[in-house]
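Sorry to interrupt, but I need a hand with the structure work. Could you write out one complete protein record for me, on any chain you like? Could you add the entry underneath, on a fresh line?
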Amino acid sequence: MHEQWMLRFEGDMRKEYGVCRMQESDVARAVDIWVEQYQRYCGRSQSFPCNWIEGTSEIAGFLYEKVKAGTALTVKSGNRLLGYMTYDEFPFNGEKSAFCPSIAHAAIDEHKEEVYLTLYKHVSREWIERNIFNHMWTIFYNDDELRAILFDWGFGSYLIDAFAGTDNTVVVNPAHVIRKAEPRDVATLCGLVEESRTYYASPPLFLRRDRYAEDDIVEIVKRGNVFVAWRDDDAIGFINVNVSQGDNRIDLSANKSGLIDEIGAYVKPEFRGRGVGRELLRHAFDYCRDNGIVRIHVDYETANPYANKFWRKYFDPMLLSLRRTINKNINDEHIEGNG
């Protein structure tokens, strides 16, 4: 038997809702609700990959896995499914974390706030009991209602996943040499990557990134497409473009999409605002088009002021990831005893 809780919400009339573990028989309706959300918040942009609603086997498979693991919850009114939520668990910067990706939750518009509140109350109780204090949640960027709900609950914006069609026009006035990185550039590229790591650790980002060894950079240059911008003999920026080898149900990128990932992109601070980033991006778009890639994905932290301004000029935000950190002393015995 599965757990069941009962609750009441105020509305046009008093209704009784049940919160219970998702069953396999719930998966089809859960997928339908998610597709409805996708169409509402993503359907107007040609940049967003539509394969997720043209074929929903990836989402259904994900939910079947969570049903089997017993980590998926539903809210129902009688036999009518109103919403669902599940999650992944992983260490984030060494801290136990719960992550609810965009395919891991959905709710009908009617009583949307109440359904989400009920789901989060129950699942977060489970997290806290297991000392998981870092909560991360990804939503559709254009879902202003859910964003406002989560902000009120103490979540703050963290990361944006954005997409662009590679037929986008990036107007540049070429002033720098841009060429693909070669083995002879590895040492120079290592210096730039390390400089970018220092930049991410500075305010207001305060983001810790792992250090890349020279052997790591050698492999990235071999398998990827790193374009480097030069001013005379000085490397002043780079962009790394890979091609996805499958659908990604976390960031919703599709198979054979361009990905600005791994070492990402970086321009030395003293050369920002001079068109270097545009020149690098145009080379990335040109590479994708030349190889039959119609869509490109990038993610960037909302605390990165330069990235926030630059990527929005050429990419459409699709997903917004939010994060909430719970006070670590919530499970202390003296607090429980005085509660």
